[in-house]
Task: inverse folding
């Protein structure tokens, strides 16, 4: 595999612009991974499996940060380092200024009470009602019954299950269980919420509603969210920042919009190819040639976002290129709340047209990529 | 034998059986349950990691369980005498019954606790729970249906074991069946003993099952 060095994501000063209702993010990050390595098994370093290999990453306060990767990439291990469910083999994990590795058992428990976590399989106690599940972290923290009641009822209302508080998990749907899981994670009023594939066991519609809920909680409570997922759709919908992890390395990181509109690493591209509209139709990609031949047409991907997304692009294109353009594939979408479009077009690959095209693209600032040529 | 006499013998034997089963079951469970919890939580990487102690305790539990009960009864007579001051009678019979119950309960409790989803332990750790809180608020709470069935099975087995302690004059239903039904050729006594035992075991099992069902919230039914 290519050894692309992991990069540091600077804390974003403009979090407030992306996330309305947020105080301006303080300069110190909520979570910082510094050269974190995690090895499993093995004796004296022999035959150990390296799950994380020198991770440098920061999670901005008040932001929703997504870590995406295939299964086995190390993302589950990474998120578990934050609340000390796993210990780093080397390097530092710092949560809101506190180094997790240096904490005693008691210190670790205090930290965990300030960090909520939700899980792929919800992990609700089957023997407790929805209400009592939400109450559990408060019981653990030693709250009295009255204080627990004051906290739990509003939380169950917040997640929209006020009428289900007496139900057992077996009587709830997957989405409802995750809502209870979220209410439970919020019970101790944490400053950070960890989401471990929280929507992976849910259908697309339920996934959207859970993501909406997380977004709302992030905006209303100012809660920092760190989520791991293998679904680009999840990151695209709610994460303002993203880090792509592959085989224990962060291969790409930055603002979600930037990473998604201009993916640099092959893993990112591969993960993105799962999104609708990002692939060429099979019939075209099969005929694609690498070099132009007389009379062939160029197949070009034009991506437009920000200001260019607002312009009457098609007519400008036809005008600018001075030739006919046909549309092969396209999608108009929103990434982290910003409009984004991708259009695959084909036009005459004569030298004159290509010349005009490159001038036009330079003028308009459109991002383009020549995918190949078809006869 | 007159019916009155039979009934009086049966009642006395039933009372002795219940006495032995109750004391053996309660004391055995009180000691066996914590051992079961320990066995289920003390492997490497678990709540109370102590792999070596786990292995030793496991071996002792296995050794006790593989000793035939009637041999155990005889083998621990010195210990029984130490505890109760005598080696015969109902009180003396309770000692080996209790000793046999401990590893039985321990293994059953261990497997009931191991049934609890690891994800719940992780969730509780993520909440900042102490290992003890995890045992009481998560493991025991979630394993309650399984533990109830385990205790039911223990009591039923104890009823069977208690039939053997006639060998040390423990009395009880089994003893009555052997002495009157078998040695004195009184088939009516034997039949009565068997019927009472069947009813007793059925009652225990049904009560246990219904209690376990009430504790089990894992399926949609209430």
Result:
């Amino acid at each position: 595999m290519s050894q692309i060095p992991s990069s540091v994501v600077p804390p974003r000063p403009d979090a407030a612009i992306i996330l309305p209702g947020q105080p301006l993010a303080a300069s110190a990050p909520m979570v910082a991974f510094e050269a974190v390595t995690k090895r499993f098994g093995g004796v004296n370093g022999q035959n150990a499996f390296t799950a994380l290999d020198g991770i440098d990453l920061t999670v901005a306060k008040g932001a929703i940060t997504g870590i995406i990767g295939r299964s086995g990439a190390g993302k589950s291990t990474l998120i578990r380092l934050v609340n000390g469910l796993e210990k780093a083999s080397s390097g530092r994990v710092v949560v809101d200024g506190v180094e997790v590795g240096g904490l005693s058992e008691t210190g670790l428990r205090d930290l965990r009470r300030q960090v909520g976590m939700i899980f792929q399989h919800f992990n609700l106690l089957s023997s407790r009602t929805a209400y009592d599940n939400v109450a559990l972290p408060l019981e653990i923290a030693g709250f009295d019954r009255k204080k627990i009641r004051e906290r739990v009822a509003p939380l169950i209302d917040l997640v929209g299950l006020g009428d289900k508080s007496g139900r057992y998990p077996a009587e709830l749907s997957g989405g409802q269980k995750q809502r209870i899981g979220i209410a439970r994670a919020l019970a101790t009023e944490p400053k950070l919420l960890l989401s471990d594939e929280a929507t992976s066991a849910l259908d697309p519609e339920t996934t959207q509603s859970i993501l909406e809920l997380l977004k709302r909680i992030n905006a209303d409570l100012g809660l920092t969210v760190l989520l791991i997922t293998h679904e680009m759709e999840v990151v695209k919908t709610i994460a303002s920042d993203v880090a792509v992890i592959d085989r224990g390395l962060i291969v790409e990181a930055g603002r979600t919009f930037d990473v998604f509109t201009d993916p640099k690493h092959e893993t990112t591209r591969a993960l993105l190819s799962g999104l609708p509209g990002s692939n060429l139709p099979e019939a075209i990609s099969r005929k694609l040639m690498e070099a132009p031949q007389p009379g062939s047409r160029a197949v070009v991907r034009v991506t437009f976002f920000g200001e260019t997304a607002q312009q009457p692009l098609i007519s400008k294109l036809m005008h600018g290129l001075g030739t006919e353009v046909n549309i092969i594939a396209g999608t108009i979408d929103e990434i982290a709340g910003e409009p984004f479009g991708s259009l695959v077009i084909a036009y005459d690959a004569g030298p004159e047209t290509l010349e005009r095209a490159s001038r036009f693209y330079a003028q308009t600032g459109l991002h383009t990529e020549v995918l190949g040529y078809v006869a | 034998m007159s019916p009155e006499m039979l009934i009086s013998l049966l009642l006395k034997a039933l009372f002795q059986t219940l006495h032995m089963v109750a004391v053996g079951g309660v004391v055995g469970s009180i000691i066996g349950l914590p051992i079961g919890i320990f066995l289920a939580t003390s492997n490497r990487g678990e709540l109370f990691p102590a792999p070596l102690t786990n292995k030793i305790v496991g071996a002792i539990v296995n050794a006790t369980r593989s000793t035939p009960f009637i041999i155990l009864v005889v083998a621990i007579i010195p210990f029984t005498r130490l505890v109760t001051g005598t080696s015969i009678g109902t009180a003396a019979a309770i000692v080996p019954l209790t000793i046999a119950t401990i590893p039985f309960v321990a293994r059953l409790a261990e497997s009931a606790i191991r049934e609890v989803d690891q994800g719940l332990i992780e969730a509780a750790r993520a909440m900042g729970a102490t290992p003890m809180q995890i045992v009481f608020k998560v493991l025991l709470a979630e394993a309650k249906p399984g533990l109830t069935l385990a205790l039911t099975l223990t009591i039923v087995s104890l009823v069977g074991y208690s039939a053997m302690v006639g060998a040390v004059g423990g009395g009880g239903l089994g003893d009555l069946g052997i002495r009157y039904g078998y040695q004195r050729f009184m088939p009516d006594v034997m039949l009565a003993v068997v019927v009472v035992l069947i009813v007793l075991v059925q009652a225990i099992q049904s009560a246990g099952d219904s209690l376990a069902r009430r504790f089990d919230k894992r399926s949609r039914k209430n």
Observations:
- The CA atoms of residues 84 and 100 of chain A lie 6 Å apart.
- The radius of gyration of chain A is 24 Å.
